[in-house]
Amino acid sequence: MSPSARPPLLTLQVQGLYCEAGDFFVDPWRPVDRAVITHAHADHARSGHRHYLAAAPGAGVLRARLGEISLQAQPYREPVDINGVRVSLHPAGHVLGSAQVRIEHRGEVWVVSGDYKLQRDPTCEAFEPVPCNTFVSESTFGLPIYRWAPPSQVFAEIDAWWAANAAAGRASVLYCYSFGKAQRILAGVDASIGPIVCHGAIESLNRVYRVAGVRLPDTALLSDVTRAATDRQTPDPQPLSRALVLAPPSAAGTSWLRRFPDPSDAFASGWMALRGARRRRACDRGFVLSDHADWPGLQQAIGESRAQRVFVTHGQVAVMVRWLGEQGIEAGALPTQFEGDEGEGDARADPTAPRS
What is the chain's mean pLDDT, rounded? Predict the structure, then answer.
């Protein structure tokens, strides 16, 4: 970290971001005794820690992904004392249970944002500005070219693509990240167009979202659809030819995907704003839908934090640090192992999930 007159509440250790005063880490990437977790994506929530503290709405996802862990599920905004340090978790708007970590000690307040977005998302609590002295921010999409359209516009585009494919007798395969992105899509599309089939890695997390009280439309596994057709003894390809199929990118080219007749495929990600990314994916369509803040969103979140000092952890770090300096804000880069890559979408994060 860059030098400052204020003593740092967090320092960078080989295990991750460390609060010496409270003797805990935030999103550590190596096993530690006490970890405060911003959210359950694999680059922020890793196995092997002795004790976890995370926001209560995300407890189910953490347990689904990490198994049996010692977890303190803390309600949003309710502070907890950790060795004399006041810690509270505040909504980050990224995915279910995502949180910003507010750390207060001797009048100094730091906020670690984790990943966040400011767009409306019915599957998680909205981002909440948390005033602080020092703000630790992501910058996954920290370039002026990244400016998201309203979600309603993107979902209208997805619905139109799906409806056109259904009318032509083609399944609509939409690749997306299994945790967060898939559920946001489910909550936003028009489920009356046709059946929705989910890869097992996605469906296992759908169940966790439903248990948490998030409303999602009816979905099915491929095995459910084919079994129903077999039970009727009249195999019917029509449900599959009208279906919206949500799958992680790792499913591309697999035998599972070949069960769908003449599919049209698409990819949902913030990276679809770049032509090069769309070409590399070689999909019929690309839908620009991100669970991270765009350039204006990053600027807004940082401004609303009222922080005098900002550390940028991952993404377009150099650009964001330079822009902050131009605004008269003390800023620096903070090297971490966070990725912020929503193109991952891989079933490997859920190795026990059914694949059909």
Answer: 90
